[in-house]
Amino acid sequence: MNIIISNSSSVPIYEQIKQAIKTAILSGELKEDENLPSVRNLANDLRISFLTVKKAYDELEEEGYIKTIQGKGSFVAPKNIELMKEERRREIEKHVEEIIKIAKIYNINKSEIDDIFNYIASEEDFDIN
Amino acid sequence: MNIIISNSSSVPIYEQIKQAIKTAILSGELKEDENLPSVRNLANDLRISFLTVKKAYDELEEEGYIKTIQGKGSFVAPKNIELMKEERRREIEKHVEEIIKIAKIYNINKSEIDDIFNYIASEEDFDIN
DNA sequence: TTAGCTGTTATGTTTAGTATATAACAGTAT
DNA sequence: ATACTGTTATATACTAAACATAACAGCTAA
């Protein structure tokens, strides 16, 4: 797993770690029951305090993404596929809500939004199927 | 102008004020050269420190939204319509980028995104024209 | 069993950002 | 002058984030 963090970002380090691990899990890069790096190892790799990594792991456990066993380590939790799909959908919905909020205020219509979508899609090599 | 702030929000108060004023300007609710509430007045209305309002006004001036004259007050800056349109477009683009990033990782296709869009649009009474 | 990994907990410190209060000063307008 | 505007300086309080250090506890393989 490749985690890149930026300490100049306004996003807290522990939050960046959470996001990276969530993404790795949800994309399948990290598989069920797979071992996560130990808090101290990851902290050393990222040159940060193990407490920061622990905070990320603690919250990931609270959210059901991983399981931690004292003395053994942290593992990817057996996942509730439906639940995680739901979570992803909610993320997209949030962005769509923001877009629509902006569009309503400034009288931007659907076709303009589609234009932007198509533009970004081509920039990002996203297949419009 | 009606500004509502929440002190329980994780978004700083000065940021909430900035957003509210930006929106009011860009939507046309506040017109060019129109007088903004004085820092002390707005602070009183919102029951916060005038320094917090001043911070918001200072940043709005830096970003070109308003002009402040000592002894007179703050006014909506003559706007560069094209520039502001660009800024709005950039905001939408950011959300679209996030959506596409998520869609790529989890193999969500355009029609699923459209479904979400249509769902939110109907919820939010957004005309799909 | 012990060494060396794991995670856990406690304590204290530092830093940056946000928000505040207060006071004094400066420009504008009537 | 008075009463509005904005400006500046100083000091304080609070919080979140991140850190360092130390000590403790569970697991496992040599």
**CATH H-level superfamily title of the largest domain in chain A:** Winged helix-like DNA-binding domain superfamily/Winged helix DNA-binding domain
Shape of chain A: elongated
Main β-sheet description of chain A: 2 strands, antiparallel
What is the mean predicted local confidence, pLDDT of chain A?
Answer: 92
The first-to-last residue Cα distance of chain A is 30 Å
Helix content estimate of chain A: 55-70%
Assembly level: homodimer
Number of domains of chain A: 2
What is the CATH architecture descriptor of the largest domain in chain A? Orthogonal Bundle
CATH topology of the largest domain in chain A: Arc Repressor Mutant, subunit A
Largest interface: A-B, 35 and 35 residues
Q: Give the strand order of the largest sheet of chain A, numbering strands 1, 2, ... along the chain.
A: 1-2
Question: What structural class do helix, strand and pairing data of chain A support?
Answer: mainly alpha
CATH class of the largest domain in chain A: Mainly Alpha
Counting DSSP H or I runs of 4 or more residues, the number of helices of chain A is 5
Share of β-strand residues of chain A? 5-15%
Number of E strands of chain A: 2
Rg over alpha carbons of chain A: 18 Å
Order of helices and strands of chain A, N to C? Answer: HHHEEHH
